[in-house]
Every structure is written in C-alpha cells, then in structure tokens.
Amino acid sequence: MIVLGDKEHYKGIGQIKYEGKDSDNPLAFRYYNPEQIVAGKTMREHFKFAISYWHSFGGNGSDLFGQGTHHFAWNEAREPIRAAKIRADAAFEFISKMGFDYFCFHDFDLVQEGENLGQSEVRLATMTSYLNEKKAGSEIKVLWGTANCFSNARYMNGAATNPDFKIVARAAAQVKLAIDATIALGGENYAFWGGREGYMSLLNTDMKRELDHMGQFLIQARDYARAQGFKGNFLLEPKPMEPLKHQYDFDCATTIGFLRQYGLEKDFKINIEVNHATLAQHTFQHELEVAAQSGMLGSIDANRGDYQNGWDTAQFPNNIQEVTEAMLVFLKAGGLQGGGVNFDAKIRRNSTDMEDIFLAHIGGVDTFARALLTADKIITSSPYDSLRKQRYNSFDSGKGKEFEEGKLNFTDLYHIAKENDPIELQSGKQELFENIINRYI
Hints:
By secondary structure, this protein is of the alpha/beta class.
C-alpha cells in the first residue's frame, strides 16, 4: 500500500480483497477477482477500473433543497492548495485500498479554479507536480483527463460553441492546460464532454456555425496534443440534454456522425455513460453496440439512473440484467479500445459514513464482474450464439448470400419475391433469449 501524508482518512478500512460469492464481509469483492482469466484476459485487463475524482472526492452531498452532508476533510479546508493536497492524499489512499489502477479527473477537480487564467495555471501546475510525487510511490495511473468547460458562468452559452469568440479562446486555453496536465501525469486518454455545447432555443442559435466551431475546436485540440507527443485516444462523451435543452453530442450515432463529418474518426473514440444512454431513450447495450460497430468503443462511464426520474442521478450500477446484456456486446466486440470502466457515480446524500464510498464501489465492481462472468458463460455454454446466427441463415447461402455480396439488383429481388409468395413467418424467439439471460445470471 502506498505511503500517505500525515493522516489516514479512511481509518479502520484495509485492502479490499476478493473473498468469493459466499463471503459475508461487506468490505470484500464477491465476484471481482482481478487476476481471474475470462475470455482470454484478466478481469483487471478487461475493465481497467477507474475512480472518478469529481464524484468520489469533489461532492459534499448538497442538493437544490439542502446543504452538504458529506463533511470530509478536503471539503472543510479553505486554502485551495491545502484542500487540493488533502483531497489528493485521500484519493490515493482510497484508490490504493480498493486495489484499482486508475483515476479520471477534470482540471478543477484537482484544485479550485483561480480568479483568473494565470492563477488557475499556477494552481494546476502545482497539483500536477504533487500528484506526480504521489504516483511515483504507487502503481496508480490516469485513465483520462479533461477540462471542466461547463460549470463557470462564462460557459452559460457553451464553450467551443459559444457565440462570443473571447470565450471560445478562453475554453481553448483551459483545454490546453488540461491536456498539458494529462500528458504530464501520463494519462492514457483525453476526454471531452460538451456539457453546454448545444442550445436552449433555436430562435437565437446558428446551429451550423456552432457545429463548425466545435469541429474546428476539436481539430485544434487534437493537433496540439499530438504536437506535444500525446499518443492516446481522444474520447467524446454523448448526452442528449441536461443542462441544455438539446446537446449536439446527443447519442452515439449522432456523435459518430459528427466525428466523421469533421474528419476526427481516426483519433476519437466514444466514452459511453449508462445514464446518458437512458436519457437519450436508448439502452446502455444499444449505445455500446452502435460504438462497437463503428470501431469506436473507447471507454465506459459506469452508473445508472433512477427510472422514476428523467434526469442524471449518477447512481452506482446494480442492475445485473442490464449489465449482463451490455457485457455480451462488450465481449463480442473484443472489449474497449484504450479506455476503461470509470465509476461516474456518487454516493447518496444520506450516505454519510466514510465506508459508504467503499461499499458503493464494491457493489459496482461486483456487478460488472458478475455480468462479465455470466456473459462469458452465455457465449461459451448456451445456444445464444447459434440461435442468433440461425435467425440470419437465409443469408448464408444462395440468393441471400448473393444479396449481401451486392450481386442482385432490385429487379432480381422482385422476381425472387414472386417465386417465394406466400412467405412463412419465422419466430424471433425473444422470450427464449430472455430466458437464457436469466438462466445464467
């Protein structure tokens, strides 16, 4: 375990270990065995689990109707650098005790934003150096970094898509500094989330101009990072709305189309969040499949929403059926391309004990691990694959195969249709597929 500063924040909690599904220890993994081989990789390699710096160490449990309930040392310290260093100490202690390898961050998760760009730059550089000192005594790495270009009031009308050029330039400066910090910390990816890249009303919005600006902004960010020697993927995270009425990176399909339009598809992958998928009226597994089919399945923000609330509640994942279906897509696609599974989730406002953040992550980790094991058994031991292939066997030979190969024209299809009239219906066997999932969970 890494050496901490002069204080242990999570007292009484030791290393979280795998104890198997029959364990009664709430501070142990029941399904996540990091070195267990599943489908040719260890679980550790499959998932590359990461802690989200913002939710795990940045929130205080406040909401629109009440003050904060999470009274942690890093929330109580007033001087920004001191608070940031306490937060970093707690973060590295937590990540180490969880046995994770990675964390993700926004620039101003690491330290409070300054009163001006120059002060922010100095603060960020100070904390980058401090984090590198801590990394030197551990195996902890950065999965991805990003810039918070949505919280400050200057971004109320967007960052890259803002109608005021001065703000676009300020956003570029902020992203530059975040890229520099990510590179300095050895980050494996760099992410973008366009939290306010969209509109509240089309009445005052030139959509084409804003999209062109966003495309140019990402091109310039990519070129800058590559010039600094960054070799990793850039990640773009879709979300349909909230905080804006409509965001330009609505879902995976929209985002992939945008990346192709501006020639960014070779450098960018998709970072898929579960709750964002459901807000777009999709399923998590649908979004994974869309990204995978385009070779852009980059990384995952693991959480869930509340089906009674139409907004982003960012709860820890616990829906084993949902995640099992997602892991079927995950395994069939060969896993993630460069990214990992980041828990973009937060403990509830009334979860106020220091151990609660451990319990939440353990539950999320075990949900993904159990789902992976289940999906692997479904693929290797059930008729799942053969049943899916059987639905399309009319394309495996004869005229169906000729159609797939582009050898038939519309007139050919017309004559084939006349020969095959009437057509016998073929069952989709949906209930059988659903039963297979439940059988193996």
